[in-house]
Design a protein that fits this description.
This protein is an alpha+beta fold. About 40% of the residues lie in helices and about 20% in strands. The protein is built from four helices and four strands. A four-stranded antiparallel sheet has the order 2-1-4-3, with helices on both faces. A hairpin with a 5-residue loop joins strand 1 and strand 2. It is globular.
């Protein structure tokens, strides 16, 4: 008989819970975690946050690009403003299990990023080492 998995056994669910907890009390409306290519790995929405998975995917891609400092082009700045709805936009690079991931948020910077990276490393180590 196959053992039933709990949500914490599924890395995607655990990463999403980590992001939800990280953004609580921060003022962020939405948070997206992107891989090295800028693809959405997981996201979380707060009250008034990004409305769809597509918007979280855009946030993830922008986070990867902006954290790597490709910002500064007028067209990109306009796109960031459109995705962020005129709100503040933050992007940072995280090192998780010797891999580069990107964390982007709208509304406020997500605090304790080293702690988040450590938690993501704990969750993702079995997946990233495979």
């Amino acid at each position: 008989m196959k053992q039933q998995m709990t949500p914490s056994d599924v890395p995607q669910d655990a990463v999403e819970r980590c992001l939800v907890e990280a953004m609580q009390g921060s003022g962020a409306r939405a948070v997206a975690l992107a891989g090295e290519e800028g693809l959405l790995l997981a996201g979380a929405r707060g009250a008034g946050g990004a409305g769809s998975d597509g918007e979280l995917a855009l946030l993830a891609a922008l986070g990867a690009g902006c954290a790597d400092k490709i910002a500064g082009y007028a067209e990109l700045d306009e796109f960031v403003d459109a995705v962020a709805g005129g709100d503040d936009f933050y992007a940072t690079r995280l090192t998780v299990c010797d891999r580069t991931l990107y964390l982007a948020s709208i509304g406020a910077r997500v605090p304790q990023q080293k702690k988040i990276a450590a938690e993501l490393g704990r969750i993702l180590a079995p997946v990233l080492s495979a």
